[in-house]
């Protein structure tokens, strides 16, 4: 069973009260809390969420597998999301992806639709393409964990910031 | 009141008319409630709480406010769709799932002026009788979610949310709900499913019009962030006064988000219909890059049909008919529709002559193939086919007839799906093929006609 620290569980319980009509509505928020703490959504996390909300585990799993925001594999210590969509691509996001991978020592050739994340050999960085991150005027943009970066031209500088 | 000054280098352009973005990049401004109150914040809410509910909706109708999320549907009319005989709870949801490629306006409201949104929501909730409301914020805005939650807590503390707001007897709770990276959650019924803790498969309309059967099958109003902010200003100045800004049937201001090949991309709030595409590109955005010529513009988010730079658009009927070049098109809902595209979410993507249209279309097709929810066959299969075909065009592995196949696939999605994603994903392909057919065909190879060039097809053929 998943070892959820007490304070995290208290936070989750408070969050569930935001949905007085249906506890099922709290599936996404509970998963966000767990992913934030554990880095990804494990099978145990799915079961824990289901038990917490009184749902069949499949009702949680189908949510996890649908939304790109939930990961089923552990990311690196710093997870980078590079915007792939038109305005950022026009501003050089594919080139940014390439240079981030090269400098962080990430091999992306094995990436597929269902396994979009590639991790560096040392586990420090992971990377994936994200669809439009909504800062199209200031591309290329990327996120590192919860931080947001606009007009990223210096891949080296970005990685050094998170070393 | 002291004159407003803006941070250096972030001053609004002279052709802008800042209402919603009045405080964005403002010198000395922060997201706290104290700053907001000093600026006269929450006075419109106090005013609204003393008005008859129906009168508020009437003011919003008079204002002519049209939804800023994409469809441009009149906001007051939407509110009026709640059945008058309704006895169920009513919910209001703010759609802050901003994810239409090319659109980046809500981000700044959420980060820099969250109380404007909270106040707009509180007024809207009072008008429609909602006691519980959610702000659905896309997962990629973690900082915004924190800022808005702080604003909600502050508003609670000052008695603008919670029980018996300002002694009016009106109770309201607003909660932030974070999405998880799916574009389809911007579709209002998909958003509602997501808020119910499910996969965001859009619901079929009828019968599931949110105003009648929305969240938990109760009447639900779903409005965009920018739309709800306008509500505050409509109550402040009155519907008729508000309707004096902008143009007839296209009232108020709206935020244009410009990206792509211009000197100064960014956000610009203008009166609807008062500036032209030419003014947007040449004045607000400082023109195209040196030595470049305009090739195409996507005027209202990536789902809007592309406009070609050398087209002549005929708008109006009979004696009112006039011909416009792309530079003359006023940025409003109706003219943009008459030009065969849409003003959509206000995301303007400018492309100059350095861009390959096959590459641009392929980029968009990747987006839609990734974001189709998979519920309806034409969209689930078609969006992927379109992506695979343009993958081949870009790789130089397509034949000329592939372009016709591509167009046929798009035409078979449009109008055959539960939600508007079907149109959203097929319109780019339809319009790019219609307007740039020669260029797309030019990227194909006649000798590949009839050849099995799809990698997956080849693999399948080899295993037979």
Q: Any overview of this molecule?
A:
- The complex is a heterodimer of chains A (163) and B (464).
- Chain A folds into two domains: 6-66, Arc Repressor Mutant, subunit A, CATH 1.10.10; 78-161, 3-Layer(aba) Sandwich (Glutaredoxin), CATH 3.40.30.10.
- Chain A has helices spanning 6-16, 27-38, 43-53, 57-66, 86-90, 93-104, 155-161, and strands at residues 78-83, 118-119, 125-130, 142-144, 147-149.
- With 163 residues, chain A is of the alpha+beta class.
- The longest helix of chain A has 12 residues, at 27-38.
- Helices cover 42% and strands 12% of the residues of chain A.
- Chain A has a five-stranded mixed sheet with strand order 2-3-1-4-5, with helices on one face.
- Chain A is built from seven helices and five strands, in the order ααααβααββββα.
- By secondary structure, chain B is of the alpha/beta class.
- In chain B, the strands form four sheets. Chain B has a five-stranded mixed sheet with strand order 8-7-13-9-10, sandwiched between helices. In chain B, strands 3-2-1-4 form a four-stranded parallel sheet, with helices on both faces. A two-stranded antiparallel ribbon of chain B has the order 5-6.
- In chain B, a hairpin with an 8-residue loop joins strand 9 and strand 10.
- In chain B, helix 6 (114-128) crosses helix 9 and helix 14 (377-394) runs antiparallel to helix 15 (400-411).
- Chain B is globular and about 80 Å long.
- Chain B starts with 32 loop residues before the first helix and ends with a helix.
- In chain B, 56% of the residues are buried.
- The chains are: A alpha+beta (163), B alpha/beta (464).
- Chains A and B meet through helix 2, helix 4 and helix 5 of A and strand 3, strand 7, strand 13 and helix 13 of B.
């Amino acid at each position: 069973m998943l070892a959820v620290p007490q304070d995290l569980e208290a936070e989750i319980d408070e969050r569930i009260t935001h949905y007085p009509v249906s506890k099922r509505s709290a599936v996404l928020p509970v998963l966000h809390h767990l992913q934030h703490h554990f880095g990804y959504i494990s099978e145990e996390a799915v079961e824990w969420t289901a038990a917490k909300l009184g749902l069949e585990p499949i009702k949680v799993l189908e949510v996890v597998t649908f939304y790109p925001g939930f990961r089923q594999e552990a990311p690196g210590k710093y997870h980078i999301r590079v915007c792939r969509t038109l305005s950022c691509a026009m501003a050089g996001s594919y080139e940014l992806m390439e240079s981030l991978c090269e400098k962080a020592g990430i091999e992306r050739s094995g990436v597929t639709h269902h396994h979009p994340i590639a991790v560096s050999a040392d586990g420090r960085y992971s990377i994936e393409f994200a669809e439009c991150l909504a800062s199209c005027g200031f591309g290329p943009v990327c996120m590192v964990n919860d931080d947001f970066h606009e007009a990223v031209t210096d891949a080296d500088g970005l990685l050094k910031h998170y070393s | 009141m002291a004159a407003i000054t803006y941070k250096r280098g972030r001053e609004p352009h002279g052709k802008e008319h800042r209402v919603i973005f009045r405080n964005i990049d403002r010198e000395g401004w922060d997201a706290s409630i104290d700053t907001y109150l000093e600026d006269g914040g929450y006075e419109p809410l106090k005013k609204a709480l003393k008005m008859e509910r129906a009168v508020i909706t009437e003011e919003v109708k008079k204002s002519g406010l049209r939804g800023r999320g994409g469809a441009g549907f009149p906001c007051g009319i939407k509110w009026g769709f709640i059945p008058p005989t309704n006895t169920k709870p009513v919910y209001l949801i703010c759609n802050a799932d901003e994810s239409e490629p090319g659109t980046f306006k809500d981000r700044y409201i959420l980060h820099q002026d969250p109380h404007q949104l909270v106040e707009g929501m509180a007024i809207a909730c009072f008008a429609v009788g909602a006691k519980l409301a959610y702000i659905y914020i896309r997962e990629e805005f973690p900082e915004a979610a924190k800022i808005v939650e702080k604003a909600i807590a502050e508003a609670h503390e000052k008695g603008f949310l919670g029980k018996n707001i300002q002694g009016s007897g009106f109770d309201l709770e607003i909660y932030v709900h974070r999405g998880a990276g799916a574009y389809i959650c911007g579709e209002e019924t998909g958003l509602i499913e997501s808020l119910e803790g499910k996969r965001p498969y859009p619901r079929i309309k009828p019968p599931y019009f949110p105003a009648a059967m929305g969240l938990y099958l109760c009447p639900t109003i779903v409005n965009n962030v920018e739309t709800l902010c306008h509500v505050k200003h409509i109550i402040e100045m009155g519907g008729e006064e508000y309707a004096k800004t902008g143009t007839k049937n296209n009232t108020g201001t709206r935020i244009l988000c410009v990206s792509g090949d211009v000197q100064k991309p960014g956000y610009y709030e203008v009166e609807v219909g008062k500036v032209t595409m030419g003014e947007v590109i040449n004045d607000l955005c400082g023109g195209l890059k040196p030595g470049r010529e305009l090739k195409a513009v996507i005027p209202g988010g990536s789902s809007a049909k592309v406009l070609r730079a050398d087209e002549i658009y005929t708008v109006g009927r009979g004696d009112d008919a006039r011909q416009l070049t792309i530079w003359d098109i006023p940025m409003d809902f109706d003219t943009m529709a008459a030009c065969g595209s849409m003003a959509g979410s206000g995301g303007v993507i400018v492309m100059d002559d350095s861009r390959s249209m096959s590459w641009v279309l392929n980029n968009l097709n990747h987006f839609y193939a990734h974001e189709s929810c998979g519920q309806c066959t034409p969209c689930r299969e078609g969006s992927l086919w379109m992506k695979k075909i343009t993958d081949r065009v870009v790789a130089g592995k397509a034949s000329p007839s592939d372009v016709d196949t591509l167009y046929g696939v798009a035409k078979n999605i449009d109008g055959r799906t539960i939600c508007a994603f079907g149109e959203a994903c097929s319109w780019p392909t339809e319009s790019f093929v219609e307007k740039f057919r020669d260029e797309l065909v030019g990227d194909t190879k006649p000798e590949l006609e009839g050849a099995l060039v799809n990698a997956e097809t080849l693999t399948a053929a080899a295993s037979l």
